[in-house]
């Protein structure tokens, strides 16, 4: 599945013209405030290459998100297998990252709901997880809006982060297929 639509969005394969706006998004300190650092241009390009290859290989992954009306690139939403070991892995994660001027428009929630349909109806996945650093209230709000629930006993320290990182502690949300 390389492309699907929601009422206002197109979730699609990554294109060459996505590289510049993705690099701008990854270099924005406000967008990246809940990540260890902003991304260099090289890191942004590597992400586009990796995400595109994963979509090609599996048919699902992190789709580029575009506004249907304008064609404006907004970021990504999709599915990924966490690349670290934790009490909840192996698992499939639902995640998103949108440019700052797209925040507050309901785009993340709308895109995530579209991905839920693919995950549960097309891929027949039994469960999805989502996680973020404790201070990331915006993403946690999206998780709740799409029906995910959190058990605080499952919160964890992210193994890829330093022990003194203010982002170390992460919340874990889950959603089982209806």
TrEMBL record:
Superkingdom in the source lineage: Bacteria
InterPro entries: Acyl_CoA_acyltransferase (IPR016181), GNAT_dom (IPR000182), N-acetyltransferase (IPR051531)
N-acetyltransferase domain sequence ranges: 9-178
Cross-referenced Pfam families: Acetyltransf_3
PANTHER family associated with the record: GNAT FAMILY, PUTATIVE (AFU_ORTHOLOGUE AFUA_3G00765)-RELATED-RELATED, N-ACETYLTRANSFERASE DOMAIN-CONTAINING PROTEIN
Protein name, per record: GNAT family N-acetyltransferase
Annotated source species: Amnibacterium soli
């Amino acid at each position: 599945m390389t492309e699907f639509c929601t009422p206002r969005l197109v979730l699609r394969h990554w294109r060459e013209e996505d590289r510049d706006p993705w690099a701008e998004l990854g270099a924005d300190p406000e967008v990246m405030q809940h990540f260890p650092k902003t991304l260099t241009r090289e890191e942004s390009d590597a992400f586009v290459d990796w995400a595109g290859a994963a979509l090609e290989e599996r048919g699902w992954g992190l789709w580029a998100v575009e506004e249907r009306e304008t064609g404006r690139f907004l970021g990504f939403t999709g599915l990924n297998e966490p690349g670290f070991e934790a009490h909840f892995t192996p698992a499939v994660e639902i995640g998103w990252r949108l440019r700052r001027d797209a925040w507050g428009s309901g785009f993340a929630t709308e895109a995530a709901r579209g991905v839920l349909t693919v995950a549960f109806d097309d891929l027949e996945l039994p469960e999805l997880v989502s996680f973020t650093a404790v201070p990331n209230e915006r993403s946690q709000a999206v998780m709740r809006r799409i029906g995910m629930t959190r058990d605080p006993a499952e919160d964890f320290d992210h193994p890829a982060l330093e022990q003194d990182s203010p982002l170390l502690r992460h919340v874990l949300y889950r959603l089982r297929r209806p």
